[in-house]
Amino acid sequence: MFYSDQMAKELMRTDYNVRRQIIELFGVEAYCGDQLNTKHLASLAFKDPVLLEKMNQIIHPAVRRSFDVWCEKQNKAIVFNEAAILFETGAYLKFDATLLVTAPVEMRIKRSMTRDKSSRDEVMQRMNKQWSDERKIPLATFVLINDDETPVVKQLEDFLLTLN
Length: 164
Known about the structure:
Elements: E1 2-3, H1 4-14, H2 16-26, E2 31-32, E3 35-36, H3 38-45, H4 49-72, E4 81-82, E5 99-102, H5 105-116, H6 120-128, H7 133-136, E6 142-145, H8 152-162
Parallel strand pairs: 1-4, 5-6
Antiparallel strand pairs: 2-3
Helix pairs in contact: 1-2, 1-4, 2-4, 5-6
């Protein structure tokens, strides 16, 4: 599986061209040594739609290129690309099928806070920049409900059967 968000962070840390553009956009405070200063970037980008769009114009093409290279190395019938804003960027159009994983909003907030060690406000800032499930559902090939009540494995099996 290809994880777009992880690759974006890796490219922002290791790709000279991406790193240079991020510094031009956000200043030298964008990095603490070799490490990306995610708190600094988030504090600026999620409050300024123009900055967020400029950052996305740097990162998304680099991640897409990285995904294309990764795909060429795969020898599987099916590959998966996990991405938080696949629909928002239009990248979903390049895939044969899409699986949208949904969960109740409050559950998503709590999971994000735990995973990212973020505050509720930080999670809400990110979520407010993403499309709602209602907007994405009509674009998805299949919708999986991850609410700790609906069996996920059965839904995933059903999705895989639709691919045959």
